[in-house]
Design brief:
The chain is mostly helical and 117 residues long. α1 packs antiparallel against α2 (36-64). The mean pLDDT is 87. It contains four helices and two strands. It has a domain at 3-66 and 101-115. 64% of the residues lie in helices and 7% in strands. The longest helix has 29 residues, at 36-64. Flavin-adenine dinucleotide binds next to α1 and α2.
């Protein structure tokens, strides 16, 4: 994952959330957290949710490492559009997601609740 748009750390945190969504219910039932169906669901969901960011990053890197006239014109146009209020609104909507309720693990053996996230 190229660091250019600075999303890699957030994706790592999202990955932990996607994984805990799958394995906490198993742990609460005393089942094996290395359940292959659950791990495949985690992998599919995480790849599906990170793919748009991955593709957008790669196109930005491609655009900014291309010296052709058309790429330079596209960069200037893109920067001009990015300065407009509707563009700010769209970026804010993408970056500020609704808060996700942290899952809780209930294991009687360790005295109650262990908060994850
Ligand atoms: C100067 C600088 C500033 C940065 N600032 C920020 C910042 O403000 N915010 C921020 O969030 N990050 C930022 N980053 C990026 C972040 O620090 C790194 O990307 C991250 O720490 C590296 O995580 P990683 O080791 O999991 O590897 P990476 O390979 O970078 O992966 C990042 C995440 O992308 C996902 N991913 C990678 N490959 C796949 C795949 N094949 N399928 C599905 N998912 C995948 C995973 O969730 C992974 O944890 C910055 C990086 C630099 C260099």
């Amino acid at each position: 994952m190229h660091p250019v748009t600075a999303h890699g750390f957030n994706l790592g945190i999202a990955s932990v959330r996607h994984l805990t969504d799958e394995i906490l219910p198993l742990l609460e039932r005393g089942a094996d957290p290395a359940n292959s169906a659950a791990l495949r669901r985690y992998e599919r969901r995480h790849r599906r949710e990170s793919l748009p960011i991955y593709l957008a990053k790669n196109s930005i890197v491609g655009l900014y490492t291309d010296d052709r006239l058309i790429a330079r014109a596209a960069r200037r146009f893109g920067l001009r559009v990015a300065q407009t209020p509707p563009a700010h609104k769209i970026v804010n909507r993408i970056l500020i997601r609704p808060q996700v309720k942290a899952p809780r693990l209930r294991l009687p053996g360790i005295g109650g609740r262990l908060r994850m996230g």
